[in-house]
Amino acid sequence: MVDINDTLDCRGEVCPYPDVKSKRKAKKMGSGEVLKIFIDYPLSAERIPETMKSMGHEILSIDKTGNSEWEIVVKIK
Amino acid sequence: MVDIFVVLLPGLILGIIFGIILQRGRFCMNSAFRDILVLKEFSLIKAVIIAILVSMLGFAIMAFAGIINLSPKPFAPVANIVGGFIFGLGMTLAAGCASGTTYRVGEGMMGSFVALLGYSIGAFVTKSGAWAEVKTFLQTYKISEEGTGANLTVFGSGLTPTLMLIIGIAGIAVVFFFWILPMLKKRKASDSKMFDFSNMGNKIFKKGWSWSITGLLIGILACFAYVSSAAAGRNYPLGITGGWANWLKYWTTGADSALTWEVFLVVGVVIGAFISSMIAGEFKLRVPKDGKRIVIQFIGGLAMGFGAVVAMGCNIGNTLSGIPLLSVGSIVTTVFIILGSWFLAYFLFMRK
């Protein structure tokens, strides 16, 4: 298990807030830190990892934890 | 009485298929347009462009074969500009375009359900209620083709089918060389099979579909929809707004005549999205975390309904169905839908 430095709960957020908020959060965090994102919106669950990768961050895991619920773990570059 | 075999079943079945594609492909033009600006993400807009090109080619072939009569929408500059822009603002607030909002209802998103209520009310009230005068006023100034009086298309009605064919073929070729081929090469380079048919069930029902497949399928569906809809007496491809306006009209007036092909199509979209999200484990009844969001989505829905009726079509009627027909009105409306969406998205998501 990796240590999680910070979490972001995007459950119940509508399009495109999960994307925008996780992008902003990632920008604020320091290099090497790990962010865990909770999300319940299918489109963003696919798009956030893509956006994070294009920003240069590393996706450590994407877990589907329930009906329309995902947990994404990102390591900030 | 509603004709079951010409109106009800074809509309419903095509709607269900449409709903499944929308849900699996996450096909929402609100996201597609906005992400160009906000996230610099282009996969959804690629799906939109492919769907438009495939439809254009399909419609052209069917027109030459005499299967359909091309029916581009009229050009009413003021209505297209004002309606399109207000629709664009509305969909940003409602968190989904006409098709996006509709399929998300099937995924159990209550915010989209409220937006859809606002959308139906806005559309019905503008079509034949208290706001109808505003619509009539905005649509007064129309520009038709000189001589023939036909609805204005980019190259004139005589040349339209030929140019649809040319643009369709050329466009698909360009897309293939610049988007599809690099994607296939990348797949080959990363050592995965170019066409991997193993585990298809999982790919179809558990993972999101790629933009290329989504765009292609929607384009093909649009061709079937054109024929089916014309047989039901509505000579036009896919549409959403008229469906929800008539849906509300049916429940408020009880008139059977309001139960059109388009009504069954939109109801089918909700059912299709429900089925596919259930199978994928993506269905969940959920409300927005922030309660105020519901009110904002309702207002957004109202604005979308108003805008779509004024502009004579939403992002499906104008962008997906109207651009392939090269209607000037549809193209102008689409430009202003995008501008409306960018205008509001800039203030909401990009300013620090």
Task: Explain what the structure shows.
The complex is a heterodimer of chains A (77) and B (352). Chain A is 32% helix and 34% strand. Chain A contains two helices and four strands, in the order E-H-E-H-E-E. In chain A, helix 1 links the parallel strand 1 and strand 2. The mean pLDDT of chain B is 94. In chain B, helix 1 crosses helix 5. Chain B is mostly helical and 352 residues long. Chains A and B meet through helix 1 and helix 2 of A and helix 2 of B.
Short description:
Chain A is α+β, with helices and mostly antiparallel strands and about 80 residues long.
Give the helices and strands, then pairings.
The complex is a heterodimer of chains A (77) and B (352).
Chain A lengths: L5 E4 L7 H12 L5 E6 L2 H13 L3 E9 L2 E7 L2
Parallel strand pairs in A: 1-2
Antiparallel strand pairs in A: 2-4, 3-4
Chain B lengths: L3 H22 L3 H9 L5 H22 L12 H18 L3 H9 L3 H19 L3 H7 L21 H30 L10 H6 L5 H21 L9 H13 L7 H20 L11 H19 L4 H6 L7 H23 L2
Helix pairs in contact in B: 1-5, 1-10, 1-12, 2-3, 2-15, 3-8, 3-10, 4-13, 4-15, 5-6, 5-12, 6-7, 6-11, 6-13, 11-12
- The Rg value of chain A, from CA coordinates, equals 11 Å
CA(first)-CA(last) distance of chain A? 18 Å
Largest sheet of chain B: none
Order of helices and strands of chain B: HHHHHHHHHHHHHHH
Number of helices of chain A: 2
* Number of strand segments of chain B: 0
> Fraction of residues of chain B in helices?
55-70%
- Low-pLDDT windows of residues of chain B: none
Query: What fraction strand of chain B?
Result: under 5%
The helix tally of chain B amounts to 15
Largest interface: chains, residues each: A-B, 22 and 33 residues
Shape of chain A: globular
Structural class, judged by helices and strands of chain B? Answer: mainly alpha
Give the low-pLDDT segments of chain A: none
Strand count of chain A: 4
Strand line-up in the sheet with most strands of chain A: 1-2-4-3
How far the N terminus sits from the C terminus of chain B, by CA atoms, comes to: 56 Å
Radius of gyration of chain B, taken over Cα atoms and rounded to an integer in Å = 20 Å
The chain-level structural class of chain A is alpha+beta
Gross morphology of chain B: globular
